[in-house]
Amino acid sequence: MAKHTITLIPGDGIGLETSAAMQQVVAATGVDIEWETAEAGAACIEKYGTPLPEQTVEAVRRNKVAIKGPITTPVGSGFRSVNVALRKTLELYVCLRPVLSIPGAGGRYEDVDLVIVRENSEDLYAGIEFEKDSEGAQRLIQFCEDEGAGTIRPDSGISIKPISETASENIVRYAFDYAVKHGRKKVTAAHKANIMKHSDGLFLQTARKVAKEYEGQVEFNDNIIDAFCMNLVMNPDWFDVIVFPNLYGDIASDLCAGLCGGLGIAPGANIGKEYAVFEAVHGSAPDIAGKNLANPTAQILSAAMMLDHIGELEAAALIRQGVRNVYADGTNLTADIRRATNSDAPAVSCTDFTQALVDEIERLRA
Ligand code: NAI
Ligand code: MG
Which of 16, 70, 82, 129 has CB atoms 3.0–4.6 Å from 284's, for a disulfide? Predict the structure, then answer.
């Protein structure tokens, strides 16, 4: 079997625990991986003067594939999100999040099977913002007034929502190509084009244009985001592949995780033309960090996506089967899943869950 060198950014908070668990489970599949560890996050600021050191970005460029744990972003002030910066720097324009029920994980439905394709580079996450009372904010407010575009209260902070035809076309095309490649029947575009005619409206118009090229091959429809949320919660089987601008995709990701048993089991990937960085949907969970309580399933399933990406399909399948077996057995489940299933059975630690999964994978291989 070929040897792979993969960049591992463990992150912080529960990332340290879930990354270690992930490494142990990947090793159990027998796949030959050399991990190259790279740092990012608040701890880097003192050492390197930035939360995202250049050598970390270089390591991902060199190996082309990385897996990362979550990284804490201070709310309101402090540095901008390292996660957003990494996606931008490496042009990881797709955020791919398969949503698949795991029987026994406490989902509201037993058979959710859909795929979130979220635009990763623009929208309100572009990071173009003007602080209240700043000169930029004042000038922008004046500009909008002069243009007759509308009146903004003078004491406003402003975040800009750019949506381009280029990025919309790229993400919608990715969604359709993904559907074709994986035998999926339908792509739904979620938006608020009725209100934001020039941003979401452009996204929808572009989606309709791209959809025409796939006519007869993949079905297309669209859904206004608020109605979409209700439809999703009541009838998840109405959806297959769903394509979103950045913000709605972020929110819908956690909503979908909730349908399946929670953030503890929701994997994901950030994908570009050249590089891919795999990571769970969840954040650093400061409330349980360092307590050996985290559910590492989400990062472990992100590693399965990574193994598919590098052509190690058997190892990926082993991990998925192992996970399904451990959840179906139900003896070794973490606290988040006990809560999701309203179960009084004792919860196991992150490390005990990991050991049970490693044992199961070894049993499957024997
Ligand atoms: P969060 O996802 O870290 O936590 C939300 C809730 O879910 C918490 O109660 C947490 O304990 C629980 N939870 C999350 N993952 C879990 C797991 N694997 N096992 C068991 N329980 C789990 O979201 P929150 O609290 O909003 O964000 C915390 C920090 O993480 C923030 O600084 C945020 O910016 C950052 N973040 C980083 C992300 C990344 O690195 N990609 C993504 C999302 C948030
Ligand atoms: Mg999120």
Answer: 70
Residue with tokens 């929110």: 251
Q: Is 45 exposed, middle or buried (0-12, 13-18, 19+ CB in 10 A)?
A: middle
List, in order, residues 6 or more apart from 257 with CB less than 8 Å away. 99, 263, 265, 266, 281, 282
Q: How far apart are CA 358 and CA 150, in angstroms?
A: 59
Give residue-wise pLDDT tens across range 29-50: 999 999 999 999 988 988 998 9
Q: Tell me if 35 sits within 8 A of 8, measured CB to CB.
A: yes
Q: Which residues pair with 190 in a beta bridge?
A: 223
Q: What pTM was computed for the model?
A: 0.94
Phi, psi of 18 (to 5 degrees): -75, -30
Nearest C-alpha neighbor of 37 from the set 55, 17, 24: 55
Sheet containing 94-100: give its strands across. Answer: 33-37, 4-9, 65-68, 276-278, 269-271, 94-100, 113-119, 241-244, 186-191, 219-224
**Spatial separation of the C-alpha atoms in residues 346 and 350, rounded to whole Å:** 13
Q: Is 155 a catalytic residue?
A: no
Among residues 32, 111, 177, 226, the one annotated as catalytic is 226
Written as six digits, the tokens of 152 are 């903004």
| Chain centroid, CA 345 distance in Å | 30
Q: Which residues contact 14 (CB under 8 A, 6 or more apart)?
A: 69, 70, 282, 284, 285, 288, 289, 294, 350
For ligand 1, whether the C-beta of 263 sits within 6 Å is yes
